[in-house]
User: Fold this.
Amino acid sequence: MIFAFTTLGDMSLREVFKECRTGKFVPLLVYEFDGKRILPYFSAESTCRRFCERNLPKKWPSGAVHLTQADLEVLAKHKIQVKDFQWPRNIKDVVTWDVHVHEFVNTPEITTERR
Assistant:
């Protein structure tokens, strides 16, 4: 499963690769809507990238990261819902953005495309 990550502008992509990836943690993109924290996931990296381009400020570095079933089970303990996005909907005007720092067992597979 493919999920978006962002630093909300607090770190550069270089720092994400140097610190986060090697430290086995990633700030996953979460949005808050109607009192719920929701983690969007995507079937393709291109959909994830277009979602980030459409919804996040350009100054916020972002990209895609692959999570395993074990990772999803850990997230479920944090009461974060997971929502499938088949296309890069524009939701920026109705949600509040946040991150959830997720710790991986193995080094995460991160992909980015500079905007």
